[in-house]
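Note to self: the last two entries modelled the partners one at a time, which told us nothing about the interface. This time every component goes in together.
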Amino acid sequence: MHFTSQQHLDDGVLEREFTLGEIPGILWTPASASAPVPLILFGQPPLGLRKMYPRLVARARHSAAEGFATATIELPGSGDRPRWPAAEQARADLRRAMDAGEPVSDEIIDALILPLVEKAVPEWQAALDALLSLPEIGGPVGYSGGVISVGIRLAVVEPRIVAASFFAGSFVPRAMFEEARQIAIPLHVLLQWDDEGNDRQAALDLFDAFNSKEKSLHANMGGHTGVPQFAGDAAAQFFTRHLK
Amino acid sequence: MHFTSQQHLDDGVLEREFTLGEIPGILWTPASASAPVPLILFGQPPLGLRKMYPRLVARARHSAAEGFATATIELPGSGDRPRWPAAEQARADLRRAMDAGEPVSDEIIDALILPLVEKAVPEWQAALDALLSLPEIGGPVGYSGGVISVGIRLAVVEPRIVAASFFAGSFVPRAMFEEARQIAIPLHVLLQWDDEGNDRQAALDLFDAFNSKEKSLHANMGGHTGVPQFAGDAAAQFFTRHLK
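The predicted structure of the combined assembly is written out below.
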């Protein structure tokens, strides 16, 4: 992990960009912390870090004020990271199906998501190794948002993640429902009730599949990008309950 | 409205029992308030005020600390209030169906709930008239919990109620779904995902039917009485957002 830039934001948050091999990432830490702090990993949608930056930094400031370090890395195939032909094909197939108003087939969803999960999860684990080796970061570790299938696999294979907040707003391969049944950590699941790109019943089925004794579904009105401010506050309270 | 007793609880809450005609009720106010305060009506399940008192007073203390007055009245046919034969019959039919593991028919649900709604809602409105005439209570007014069908009808007919929190945990006559479509105030709906006495799909359909632009569904694990503490905190934050 190499830090490539750093700046102090005006509210006492230290923002550092880094690379982990070829993967760009950002780490935010509360500059005033005197002891190692818990960490929240911000999962990514496949839109690219640069596009997501304004929302990420707002959440990072909020989390730093609560005493959390936060970090994120670019997904494979997003931002400036190299695409691979099968993913480009799957994206084109998805666009074609949606433009035609057709249901998105399981084949398209599998081709779109499963390779992304396979590639991304080991990268998140490598990032976690590097982040936890920093003296200012202790634990425990939470995972928040992004492509829900990446979060599910990561929660299954990575015992250092003790609580997770998922956004039920992306296509989920059927195979991931089996993995969801293996998750027993506390979960906080956001659902936009009228999400135009999401199958509500599938999201409810997925919530039902998680094996966690503590899991909460927070459904709110509005489309995919219309998550209300108070829903973000509730997710923050979830992490404060479980990581402090 | 006649106050029949009053006591100061140890955390600066004034608790007053009252009768409104034949109906017993309780009012809690923050003793330190210097200006009229908003009011939250605590809806009742049909278990009797005396049985519910420990949970009610805990919520009342919490609300008073946030600057709210809270009040409740006994439902018709509950506690020491007179039963009526049709309701007794409906309760017996319900018990028989549940003991036999049979689905509870629409006829039983209608007989159980609709007369209760018809009787209870005008009483809540009369209580609201009396409570709002007290100098220490201003507004706005919220309604929280209890038999959800009573809350739905009250929200439809009573414009002084500006926000409501419902517990999707009781039988709902089909006719109430039509009334739900007339509700446009902000709603906060609690659902216990594994509620043994509740049809989960019906609860989701009811949530979908509300016409409110702001409505949130908070689903948590556990049975009917297993609502976690943090779910109560989230409902309290909902009222703070809308009544302050």
